[in-house]
User: Fold this.
Amino acid sequence: MPIIRRFIPELLICLTLSLIVFLVFGSSLKWDFVRWDDDINIYRNPLIRNLDWAHVRWMFTDYRYLPRYTPLGWLGWAVIYRLFGLNPFGYHLSTVILHVSNTVLVFWLIRQLLTIAAGPESPLDSRVVATSAGLAALLWGVHPLRVESVAWASGQTHSQALFFLLISLLSYLSAIRTRQGPATRTIPYWVSVASFVASLLSYPSALGFIAVLVVLDFYPLHRFSNSTNWWWDDQAREIWREKIPFLMATVAVLSITIWARVHATGLYRPPVSINAFPLSSRSMQAFYLWAYYVWRPFRPFNLSPVYTALVKFDPTEARFFFSMVFVVGVTLLAVMLRRRYPAFLAVWVCHLTLLVPLLAVTERPYYPNDRYSYFVGTCWAALIGGGFSLLGKKSMKRPIIVGVSMLTGVGLVLFSWLSYRQTLIWKDSATLFGYVIGKLGDDPYRSDIYSRLASFYLERGETDKALACLNASLNADPQYFRSRLLRGEILFNKSMPNEAAHDFREALRLKESPLLHYYMGLTLTRLGQNEEAIGHLFRALQLDPKDESSSRLLAELVRRQGSDQRSINSSKKKSVPAFDEIPGRLQP
Assistant:
């Protein structure tokens, strides 16, 4: 009981944080899935619908379905599916609970760091430290940049990864502070290692985590302060040995992730070549992103699930030059002030290293999404918490305390309101895509969003709305392959084969595929142009000899022309269905 009484202020703060964060994001519990990867990850993914050995093995061995390694992410969704089926409520409930938990863990982490930094003889009252940590955690928890990770069902992997990472950090601090002998002989240390592995297997965002641990060893833990050679004396060797399990996990997951990315299939293209994406452009993209995630939290307006600043860019533009100057300048300033303000250097190094896996130096185009601030935002929350704690000093003037308190209160109210409003756009696909189209304006990327919206309407059987969206998509970008393909399907099913044939021909000019040649053959058959249809079907089979739809249609056309059935290979000698029974996405 005395221990409980000692932590009553902290427990009240945790309860308050949980309540406020839940109220801000709780409306998302009523939202539907959206065709913004929820289809790929959840409701159209048959491989999360069972927890038997075959499905679990797929989760831990597959690298083709997505170009990243996230077995615990799949496992998390599989557990939710077992409990809720495809009811979106369960998936949104999970993301909200994880974010509430993460806010509480951020509070405990900042509190621990402030306590360690202050030292045992600090004049700061423990209630001041707890309040400072609570305010900083709340600013992080209700910030509008958190919305994408919380209101979006597929954002769960990011919340889940941070959850395990925060447990790893807290366990590491516990192992260092309470150890008797080497930290590797303590239970908290191995809890830290296991939690770090779980974070990487949920989503590999924390590949730069080892650098964070080393930063903490320097400040605020001061573990190298008694070393004669911080690089390799006896004390330093013990500290470096502690990092070996973390390094092994990082290398293993990084290797698998690189392999998956290089061998991308299906919707995902291989990484761009050095000629298509020169080192100068990659470097400038990195500088831009490092700077972007510093200033973006101070401008949490006009947020969107997609930003097109890095789709096509010229690395000589002023914004990239100023980003480079900013990053280099802040780095030099932090190094120069390291003795007077060690916390600033620590936070800045953590910012740079945590963002390394998210700089996407192999990707073009790239989209700097809000969810990528989820991890790195905790670093700045810790620095803000340290700033709040300074207000507890007796030397601090009352007007400054009052001014900062009022500014913080206004910020919390503003952030909470903006976040609540931002969650509303994730209600369903129509709401989300309508919002994004409005934000994109005349940007050609709206062609993709119109195409996604068309797919949503097709799922609901609203063909006319889908056709209108595809028309808008092709007006924005006549070369958009997917919209050509979908509009051709709709026009064919509306008994408009001439118009469908035009779209399929245009699509073939953009990209060749067995499915498209099959569609072209089917459409030409409807138009009575059998000779040309046979040519397309033969081409489809050249590209994919196992294409049953093309082989059956080809067999029927050859039979109609009285050709020798023996010219078709043995795989086509099955009973041939009537033309109006041939399977396929199009209705003949």
